[in-house]
Amino acid sequence: MARRTKSEAAVTREQLLDAAERVFRDRGVTRTSLAEVAAAAGVTRGAVYWHFHDKADLFRAMCERATLPLEQSLTRAAGLVDGDPLLALRTLAIDTLVRLATDPRSQAVFEVIFHKSEMTNDLSPIAARRDRERCDCLSHVERMVGRAVTAGQLPPDTDTRLASLALHTYLGGIMREWVLDPAAFDLVRAAPALIDVVVAGLRANPPRRTDCVRAAAPSPPELARRPA
Length: 228
Description:
With 228 residues, the chain is mainly α. The chain has 2 domains: 2-62, Arc Repressor Mutant, subunit A; 67-209, Orthogonal Bundle (Tetracycline Repressor, domain 2), CATH 1.10.357. The protein is built from 12 helices and no strands. It has helices at 2-27, 34-41, 45-51, 55-66, 68-78, 85-102, 104-115, 124-150, 160-180, 187-204, 210-216, 220-225. α6 packs antiparallel against α8. The longest helix has 27 residues, at 124-150. The N and C termini lie far apart (95 Å).
């Protein structure tokens, strides 16, 4: 009996998460009440509070359920870093776009995150978590760019922080635009070409650290002392 109850509770939790995806996507997170999520799931409002503390907890769980594919992409890319760091970056970025394009759950959640959620006070823990995850992702990408420098694929004075920000911003922009209008283009087919644009730019002309530029440039007095 206990096993059956536990199993039923797991099913109810999934129903609530599925309903949250639908209702948040239709109405937005701020304008949706937990009662509306419960009604969409076909359960009582009390069932919501049995599984989740509040709307922020429900939203967090919904997001976590859809972020596993990105973690898998990171794992796959990590296995390629030692051999070819830039190839690993390319693989990570393409995998992320393809998984978004082929996973309806990821599409729904990313649409909610990008376009249907306002980080009000009751969702402030989610905003803080997203900031931490963003920092973690940037740090991971920056380490990969740093390894590309060590491997000689990029110049020693490459600004790895600025390069990682550029890659992260470019990828996020593609994802935001596509979830707004998935019919605009075939993301699966376009993903390699889209990512090759930014990787080629990084290879050809990466951002440089300004401190290195200043150190390499002679000061005016030094120039004046040089023999004609």
